[in-house]
Amino acid sequence: MSRRTATRIALLALSVLLAFVSMAAGRVWVPFSDWTDPSDPHWAIVFELRLPRTILAIAVGAALGMSGAAMQGYTRNPLADPGALGVSSMAALGAVLTLYLGAGASQPWVIATAAMIGAFIAVFLLLALSGQASSIVTFILAGVILQTVAGAGVALALSLAPNPWAVNEIVNWLMGSLADRSVGEVQMALPLIVVGCGLLLLIGRGLDALTLGETGARSLGINMTATRWLLAVGVALTAGASVAVTGVIGFVGLIVPHLLRPLVGARPGGLLLPSAIGGAVLVLAADVAVRLTPAAGEVKLGVAMAVLGGPFFFALLLSLRKRIA
Amino acid sequence: MSTLGAHDVSVRLGDRLAVDKVTATFEAGTVTAILGPNGAGKSTLLACLAGLRKPLSGHVRLDDVDVLSMPPRARARRIGFIPQTPEIAWAVEARILVGLGRTPFIGSRGLSLEDAAAIDRAMAAAGLEALAERDVTTLSGGERGRVLIARALAGDPEWLLADEPLTGLDPGHQLDAGALFRAMAHEQGRGVVLTLHDLSLAARIADRIVVMAGGEILADGPPDAALSPDVLSAAYDIEARYVTGASGPLIEIVGRGR
Predict the structure, then answer these.
(1) Cβ A211–B92 below 8 Å, yes or no?
(2) Interhelix angle for A164-174 vs A136-159, to 10°?
(3) B133 touches A at CB < 8 Å
């Protein structure tokens, strides 16, 4: 059995295992023996409270992992990630604006749409700002600009917020979390994420060919305009829908493809699906860890991921210093 | 016999014409080398021939079809292209990189047996069997050059357009690659168009030589005619002689022009 197959099987097994743990673990530990009896109050905890949260963790993790892998493949840049390059922040800005204007409260799909529009604008600006050459430096700078603009927009919404309730809501948004998510959120985000991942899988061949640069890919018959559009819409759907239901969870798309590259190979198209499963594993594990961390309130998942991802990003940057300079 | 022709092709790069009303028809079964000083417009012309750059005016026809009007996948199956400064973005195995040459053929089911056979043939033709599992980013420049040639061969193209494919190869592998290009043209009836910088090598490999300077064609013909002292002086500002040695032609460069 090749290392590639072994890794895939291990990832799948790990995600299934963690999904069960995620439904069993929390303030109340529910042993598997209680799962089969619907009259047991524990049954409601597992299937009505924790199941949506587990499904969302899988969906959002897969969305972030795959969009990170796709962005890295397209830009030939291992530092690309919806969180690090401001795509998630722009999605959050979109969501926050609807919260600020009060429209988000009336209809959940308004938030999702606004978040996806924000993410879409971000991806397009990234591709436009970094240009054809897509050097690492211009790309990171474009990401910094987006991050700053989105941050400023959110800060403005915060300072102009009409009431403390709105401030509270916005702050909650900025720190991604899976706590207290219901079936409604699953129903909204899951189809969008599935479609988004489907679109991203379509460009796998194009991402492979881009290993040879844009001219190389075009000479192999890849339609770059179509690839760019599919990437932008795919990332907007996956990252936008994720932010709409969980807020900003960074670094998943950065960490997962990087860890998987030595295991399944660096071919970008072949990295898409493993990154989705890997992302699901990472978010599930982090969410369980967050729930089990003894603290007065629950540590926000976005914060935990940033604590984990910040040093990782730093180490990655150090290892890439030569290429960037 | 398949032909690939540029008709009145002009390309503007910035504020100058990189290619200025060039007309040249290339024939399958022939190795053609495009020579010329830096900035002569060789690479730009080659990109136009490959259908990867839209000329300011004029057109490029493969047989009777405008290359820009061909669907990209269909064009990629017929015309293989090796860019001048090939980028290899990820640390993939050599065999996987060569396999990218099958991109225009791959369906939704991934690599077929036919694809795998074509990849094996290309690897063998470029003498890469021993390097198949190696990470391309750990290969030397010349080895990488051979991987990229094999990548183009894997697509089994009717036309191979290669921008300085021999740069960075050692003399032995330059000869091997040259022999490979000649076999592709003479034995398999493909069209091969190369840009080169090494005059003697070009004289040995090519059946026909096109010398460009300032975006225009200065000379076009068999090596001994196209590489005359007058042409070399006009193109490169060098004094050089076309010498027929015991083992083949040689361009003896005497020095800078008068």
Answers:
(1) yes
(2) 160
(3) no
Say if B104 is an interface residue toward chain A (CB within 8 Å).
Answer: yes
Q: pLDDT digit string (tens) for B155-209?
A: 999 999 999 999 888 898 899 899 999 999 999 999 999 999 999 999 999 999 9
Per-residue pLDDT reduced to its tens digit, A183-194: 888 888 999 999
- Determine the structural domain holding residue B94 and report its residue range: 3-256
Question: Structural domain of residue A125, as residue ranges?
Answer: 3-324
* pLDDT the model gives residue A33: 74
CATH assignment at residue A258: 1.10.3470.10
Backbone angles phi, psi at B219, to 5 degrees: -150, 150
Count: domains in chain A = 1
Residues of chain A with pLDDT under 50: none
Evaluate whether A77 touches A320 at the Cβ level (below 8 Å): no
DSSP per-residue string spanning B210-252? EEEETTEEEEEESHHHHT-HHHHHHHHSEEEEEEEETTEEEEE
Biggest CA–CA distance in chain A, Å, is 64
Does residue B248 or residue A296 have the better pLDDT?
A: B248
**B interface mutation test: which of A214, A218, A220, A222 has the most B CBs within 10 A?**
A220
pTM given for the model: 0.90
Residues of chain A with C-beta less than 8 angstroms from the C-beta of B80: 219
| Structure confidence at residue A201 (pLDDT) | 95
Q: Which of B75, B90, B93 sits opposite A221 (nearest CB)?
A: B75
Q: Assess B64–A contact: CB distance below 8 Å, yes or no.
A: no
- Sign of the CA dihedral B217, B219, B221, B224? negative
